[in-house]
Amino acid sequence: MRAAADRHLRDLVEGPKRGLKWDLAEALRAIRFFPQVLRLNGGQFEGRPFELQPSQAFRIGSLFGWQKYSAQHGAWLRRFTRFYDEEGKGNGKSPMLGGIGLYMMVADGEPRAEIYAAAAKKDQAGILFQDTVAMVDQSPVLKRRVQQQGENPVWQMTYRGRGGGDKRKFKPLSAEKA
């Protein structure tokens, strides 16, 4: 975390020379998605808005706020295309990762996005995915917009972008044979 914070501060100054820009509006848009749209599930948190902890807000902001210019596309794209998160059990890792996936499915604007809750074992991938399904069930906004395929368990969620032609999906994926 310290190294990421140091890089962030350094890149605010040096980044433009390397084709990077910090888009505060995009960072805040992603951060605000969590409490405005997502509801937590389970125990004492059932149905409560997903208020990010400061370290979670920093990670979400970094992921969606930093951009790099792509001459190939003639546009600014997300700087970070991969995200690795490691923290102790019970610190909200699964809900945060599920929230990132939901944001990417319904609010990021990537046409035909495919989001996967991936793990080595089917059960592991299913835990994150089912937590995400429960967040959709708790959110009045997402419950109206996200369709769930399968029942007990849901095996995929889909969202049709504005106009209906852009279908995006979110599902669990594992290395294990079916």
From TrEMBL:
<dbReference type="InterPro" id="IPR046461">
    <property type="entry name" value="TerL_ATPase"/>
</dbReference>
<dbReference type="InterPro" id="IPR027417">
    <property type="entry name" value="P-loop_NTPase"/>
</dbReference>
<dbReference type="Pfam" id="PF03354">
    <property type="entry name" value="TerL_ATPase"/>
</dbReference>
<feature type="domain" description="Terminase large subunit-like ATPase">
    <location>
        <begin position="56"/>
        <end position="143"/>
    </location>
</feature>
<dbReference type="InterPro" id="IPR005021">
    <property type="entry name" value="Terminase_largesu-like"/>
</dbReference>
<protein>
    <submittedName>
        <fullName>Terminase large subunit</fullName>
    </submittedName>
</protein>
